[in-house]
Design a protein that fits this description.
- The chain is mostly beta strands.
- It has 4 helices and 18 strands.
- A hairpin with a 4-residue loop joins strand 13 and strand 14.
- The longest helix is centred in the last third of the chain and has 8 residues.
- It is globular, with a radius of gyration of 19 Å.
- The N and C termini lie far apart (about 55 Å).
Length: about 300
């Protein structure tokens, strides 16, 4: 891929030669990363496609693909940079993304699964959209929409002193004892290529996300080509309020490796506030370039029997 690629804006929607191909899947997000030049200097373009049917078309309607979130995690610090596709655009007024129904309604009977799909292209200047710091660094990048998450791609973002990002995040939860380690009777079985997570809970009372790294992860660090040890980062999202939260541990991998035990667990409601009225909470766990399938804490799980 050529660094001569021109990045014309923070967000634009034309298909590009390197854009992913449509798959005709009912629910699909995909992207490629393209080094290039923006008006602000060297950067990286994310070239994305979306193919989304029910329930996403009913949840978001004509707002698609704005609710899609772009996530980049700094490979050595675990610092999370994220934004949906709803930035302020020149000469346009920014509109808040509003879910068109509650999680309760979304869980009810829906239209036939062969209902019309929405599909299209989107492209972003990764550095501009996420306000990345000026330093050269590796980032683990993925797209996230509710219970959909793409595979992670690792990219080296070039240095550019014109970038003014500071690395500060309003969504970081600095909780040094959030994560616990070691096997438990509730630890899920390891699955190749992904972090396996399950929810151990008593409805309305207690909650633990139990996680297990994929086989071999402690033998070969899943860094995706980045230097150093991978960072364990946990993220949560409340769709109704559109609030995010994340916590990163640079020590987690070393602790699991030294004990030869690829297990961890945490209370998700010490990461993100439990809604007063139950709403779906979506949890993503990342270690280097591997992640879980999105773990959903459904509204029913949050009510005492």
């Amino acid at each position: 891929m050529s660094d001569d690629f021109r990045i014309p804006a923070t967000l634009w929607y034309d298909p590009q030669p390197s854009s992913p191909k449509f798959t005709q899947a009912f629910a699909n997000l995909a992207f490629t990363l393209q080094p290039g030049q923006s008006a602000n200097g060297p950067s990286v373009a994310l070239l994305g496609v979306y193919e989304l049917g029910w329930p996403y078309t009913e949840l978001y309607g004509e707002q698609l693909p704005k609710p899609v979130t772009v996530v980049a995690i700094h490979s050595t610090s675990g610092q999370v940079f994220l934004s949906d596709l709803n930035p302020a655009i020149e000469d346009e007024e920014e509109d808040a993304i509003l879910p068109l129904m509650s999680d309760e309604d979304a869980a009810g009977p829906g239209p036939a699964r062969n209902a019309l799909r929405e599909s299209g292209y989107f492209n972003v200047d990764l550095c501009a959209l996420l306000n990345l710091p000026p330093d050269q660094a590796y980032y683990q990048v993925f797209l996230w929409l509710d219970d959909l998450v793409t595979p992670i791609q690792t990219v080296q973002v070039p240095a550019n002193p014109a970038r003014k990002g500071t690395g500060q995040s309003p969504y970081e939860v600095k909780n040094g004892d959030l994560l616990a380690f070691g096997a438990s009777p509730k630890s899920p079985k390891a699955v190749a290529g992904v972090i396996r997570t399950d929810l151990d809970f008593q409805a309305g009372k207690s909650y633990r996300v139990q996680g297990t790294l994929p086989p071999g992860a402690l033998d070969t660090p899943p860094t995706g080509g980045a230097s150093g040890s991978p960072v364990l980062t946990v993220l949560a999202f409340d769709r109704q309020s559109r609030l995010y939260a994340w916590n990163a541990s640079t020590a987690a991998y070393g602790k699991m490796k030294s004990s030869a035990a690829p297990y961890f667990n945490f209370d998700p409601f010490r990461l993100i506030s439990q809604p007063r009225s139950p709403e779906n909470i979506y949890v993503v766990t990342v270690l280097g370039n591997v992640r879980n399938e999105v773990l959903v804490i459904f509204t029913d799980y949050q009510r005492a029997p």
